[in-house]
Amino acid sequence: MQFLVVGASGATGRHLVQHLLDGGHRVKAVVRSRATLNTAWKDHEHVELIEASLLDMPDAELAEALRDCDGAASCLGHNISFKGIWGAPRRLVTDAACKLCSAMRTTDAGRKKRFVLMNTVGVADPALGEQRAFGERLLIGLLRLVLPPQVDNEQAVAYLKNGIGLQHPHVEWVAVRPDSLTQDTETSPYDVLPAQTKTLFKPGQTSRINVGHFMAALLTDDARFAQWKGQLPVIYNRETAA
Questions:
Q1: 65: number of CA atoms within 13 Å, CB side?
Q2: Mean of per-residue pLDDT scores for the chain
Q3: Where does 2-240 sit in CATH, by number?
Q4: Could you report the per-residue pLDDT of 185-201, keeping only the tens digit for each?
Q5: Rounded to two decimals, what is the model's pTM?
């Protein structure tokens, strides 16, 4: 199988690419610069590097990149810096999801493609009855006012739920919600749950390498994808799960 990964050179994306390669799959990896890329798979024979900024790619070029791919994943997110949080593009996650899903509609007609989005546990899923306590609602309201990434992640999920839905003829999706991200070097046991079991004031932990592992499983494992299709699963490292 072959997949397009955007945000492939990032802290989580590089793990996703490696997991896909370990499973014997091919990857088209969208990176800003080959010269500054520092990953174990930089020169892998099953990796095609595409030097580009996704939001600047012409639609026809992106559609061609998606040709013959079984799906795509976005690990794009806002850097923890002044520019990353308050600078452009403020709708990075949402616009990337829209652009990828739009391109899937015009590529390999009649063939459904999977889209897996890395999101955040900061986005609640009211459809599952994820009700936040009063203090958490106040905090989320404040984050919406002062931190554009919170609104961006919420809008990306809203687009998938309302713009793509569950019966789209060309796209089927899962939005993965990790909690506080950690930098581990090896995969470890983790739990995937339909709803949050932690609070914003007592968060769980999720290693980036585990997120990459789960996203790779969603892309490549039919049963795994069918289990979570159209949902927002939460992933916690096993030792922090409820």
A1: 28
A2: 89
A3: 3.40.50.720
A4: 999 999 999 988 887 77
A5: 0.90
